[in-house]
Amino acid sequence: MIVKSIEKQCFPILLVDDDEDDQFLMGEALTAMGYSYELMRASNGFEALQMLQEMKEGRLPSLIILDVNMPKMDGRQTVLKIQQDRDLASIPVIIFTTSASLIDKLFFLTKGVEMITKPCEVSEYNQIAIKLLKLCGC
Question: What is the Cα–Cα distance from 107 to 53, expressed in whole angstroms?
Fold first, then answer.
């Protein structure tokens, strides 16, 4: 768990991705926006769901950023579990993935979950971070 303190207050964000480089790049982009937030990280859906269950006693995240292709439990299974849990179902989930699969796009569309493709250029992460922070009320 990493705490970033800068100027503007923001709620916790849960980033679920098995790629440490992608976790780092997204964390840096969110920090560059000048917000104080707690970025919690999980490397797969199973780990994320365990964290969320533990957080029910305290403060749930205001946003979940979720990859699709991960070991143990992928993004599709994780979204289904989150949406089936009445305590978690109201948390916005954004799929952030390299997948360009039409099947994935249709799946998440039917679940009401937006899918954003991971950028090829590091500079594009800041634009995505702005969009994500708006979604969680920052």
Answer: 25
Its pTM stands at: 0.84
Burial (CB count <10 Å: 0-12, 13-18, 19+), residue 100: exposed
User: Domain residues for 29?
Assistant: 2-135
CA distance linking residue 12 with residue 54, whole number of Å: 14
Amino acid at 99: S
Q: What is the pLDDT of residues 100-133, one digit of tens each?
A: 889 999 999 999 999 998 888 877 888 888 888 7
Residue 102 tokens, joined: 């039409």
CA 48/CA 50 separation, integer angstroms: 5
User: What is the Rg, in whole angstroms, of the alpha carbon atoms belonging to the chain?
Assistant: 14
Q: Which helix (H) or strand (E) holds 4?
A: strand 2-4
Q: Give me the CATH number covering residue 84.
A: 3.40.50.2300
Contact (Cβ atoms closer than 8 angstroms) between residue 68 and residue 118: no
Beta carbons of 17 and 38 less than 8 angstroms apart: no
Q: How many distinct structural domains can be found in the chain? A: 1
Instruction: Return the closest-CA partner of residue 22 out of 76, 98, 74.
Output: 98
Looking at this protein, which amino acid is placed at residue 84? Q
